[in-house]
Specification:
heterodimer, A: about 300 residues, alpha/beta, 10 strands, about 35% helix, disordered N terminus, B: about 270 residues, mainly alpha, MetI-like fold, 2 domains, 11 helices, about 80% helix, about 0% strand
Chain lengths: ~300, ~270
């Protein structure tokens, strides 16, 4: 194992930027001194370096960074798809990964919604949504389908039940996927640029639908994007990342009350937040671009 | 009688479609050119019209249909065996590195050997002629089925595994609910191509082996369509050669169409709208 004990204090709570206070909600993620090196320790690529921040429970935290900056690496570590080289990640009080345990176990308390979607093409919409509780043995087939139908009705998707994913629009697919995730009663939703491939009009509809879902479920959301406007519109907190290695550069608390709708986009506060952060993001984008040039 | 009405309506649609007429026209032109070339004596191939007369005679000859039956039985026996062995083997090789490491080298050495090169060995090793032909047919379909299954299982998107894992699937769940359905489209492709190869192989195997020496039904037939063609050649009946060839074309077409239809039934997500 190329595991290395974290530098500094064991959990580095003190150094973690203070975000909003947590209520009774579950699903706080503490990321402390996380390092991820791809390849061998000496010659490898440092994707994430000494990354420390909190994702408070019951809030939307959006991580912004240029494509390829290493933010997906972080998400994969939380989800349990990839290992970390050193540091710790806690979900509430449980250690997900850390010393002696480089890779977390994937589990239904942290569900990922993927960039290109991962609805199973061979299952109908309702079968997809009912999948989690059935394989977990939590609900009988019948009960799971019933719950799935309710969940779809709640999001206005009930008329798609018997369709296959290939038959509906990609915006609809993303909404179905979030419904499928919520069927598992997760503590955290991990969204990896879920709206990247959508056109901007569809995107705005999706954003409002996501916020509506959030208001209903109050699940912790960890959202990755390279789109700053999207980040400020959705997030309670916005974490701007440096590029390769990835680590927080600037953390912003967006003080616009939820529920938000699209009128926020033209609000003065929203513009101010944008002005405040756009330079930081642009700087990183330039760095990422230059790095990309070098690699070529 | 809803079904009958629906069928009539669909038949009507087909008759009105440009595609149908294009296909019919192309076939007609092909036959006309062939007829003209044959009548002009440019080639020593019987004209379609005279082949048709021979076919008309053969239609009333039970031994001709017995050849159809024999070849079809051999094709389907070999093909089904190839599916029964090939699908589990391919899935196993896709799932298990160990099994892959053991089987793949042997598989890759045997695969380039044309099934027809197996005919003599098959005749020696299998107790009956019938079994040896079926075995060669099996080989024809087998490699294609296995290769397609492995490829299909290996190209399933990683995201589906990750999604299934994070929703709490066991390894068995992943096999049953992700790998198996994810591989079905490739199985269908392998089957459709495989049965085509099985037809190609069975005919040649019958020619080489003498068609199982079922000679009791008359000189021209008894050993399957391949033997029928060979026997017609030996007996100098060129019209029968043509009828035999077209019979194989039709049999192969029907088999593939049948499998395509079955394939659509087992992959509904690729065909509904």
């Amino acid at each position: 194992m190329n595991y290395e004990p974290p530098r500094g204090s064991p959990i580095a709570d003190a150094r973690a930027p203070a975000l909003a206070a947590q209520g009774g909600c579950k699903g706080a993620i503490r990321i402390a001194n996380v390092v991820k090196i791809y390849g061998s320790e000496g010659a490898g690529v440092r994707a994430v370096d000494d990354c420390t921040f909190h994702v408070p429970a019951g809030k939307i935290t959006v991580v912004v960074g240029p494509s390829g900056c290493g933010k997906t690496t972080l998400l994969n570590a939380i989800a349990g798809f990839h290992s970390i080289t050193s540091g710790t990640i806690h979900l509430d009080d449980a250690l997900l990964c850390g010393p002696g345990r480089p890779k977390a176990d994937p589990g239904p308390d942290r569900i990922v919604v993927f960039q290109n979607g991962a609805l199973f093409p061979w299952k109908t919409i309702v079968e997809n949504v009912a999948f989690g509780p059935i394989v977990q043995g939590r609900l009988s087939r019948k009960a799971a389908f019933e719950k799935a139908r309710m969940m779809l009705a709640e999001t206005g998707l009930h008329n798609l039940e018997t369709n296959y994913p290939g038959e509906i629009s990609s915006g609809m697919r993303r909404r179905v996927e979030i419904a499928r995730a919520l069927m598992n009663d997760p503590k955290v939703l991990l969204l990896d640029e879920p709206y990247r491939a959508l056109d901007s009009l569809t995107k705005s509809v999706m954003h409002e639908a996501l916020l509506e879902t959030f208001d209903r479920n109050r699940v912790t959301i960890f959202f990755i994007t390279h789109d700053l406007e999207e980040a400020i519109f959705l997030g309670h907190h916005v974490v701007i990342m440096t590029t390769r290695p990835c680590r927080p550069k600037k953390i912003l608390t967006v003080d616009i009350p939820h529920p938000r709708d699209y009128s926020v986009l033209t609000a003065k506060r929203f513009r101010e937040y944008l002005d405040e952060t756009v330079e930081a993001v642009h700087e990183e984008a330039l760095k990422a671009f230059a790095a990309g040039e070098r690699e070529r | 009688m809803q079904g009958a009405v629906g069928f009539a309506e669909r038949a009507g649609h087909i008759l009105l479609s440009a595609r149908f007429w294009r296909g019919t026209l192309a076939t007609a032109v092909f036959l006309l050119v062939w007829e003209a070339v044959a009548r002009a004596g440019l080639v020593r191939v019987p004209a379609p019209s005279s082949a048709l007369v021979t076919f008309n005679d053969l239609m009333r000859d039970p031994s001709f249909w017995f050849s159809w039956y024999l070849s079809t039985r051999r094709v389907f026996a070999g093909f089904l065996a190839a599916m029964l062995v090939g699908i589990p083997l391919g899935l196993g090789m896709a799932v298990s590195r160990i099994l892959y490491g053991i089987v793949f080298p042997v598989f890759e050495v045997l695969r380039p050997i044309p099934p027809l090169a197996w005919v003599p060995a098959a005749i020696i090793f299998w107790p009956t002629q019938e079994l040896s032909i079926m075995f060669v047919t099996f080989l024809g379909a087998f490699y294609t089925v296995v290769i397609n299954v492995i490829d299909g299982a290996q190209t399933i998107d990683l995201r589906y595994y990750q999604a299934a894992r994070s929703m709490g699937s066991s390894s068995w769940d992943i096999f049953r609910r992700i790998i198996l359905p994810g591989t079905v489209p490739s199985i269908v492709v392998g089957a459709t191509v495989g049965i085509g190869i099985a037809w190609a192989v069975v005919v040649a195997a019958e020619m080489i082996s003498g068609g199982g020496s079922v000679g009791s039904m008359g000189g021209a037939s008894g050993g399957g369509l391949g033997f029928f063609i060979w026997n017609s050649y030996v007996g100098g009946s060129y019209n029968q050669i043509v009828v035999g060839m077209i019979s194989i074309g039709i049999a192969g077409y029907i088999s593939s169409a049948l499998l395509r239809k079955l394939g659509e039934l087992v992959t509904p997500w690729l065909h509904e709208q």
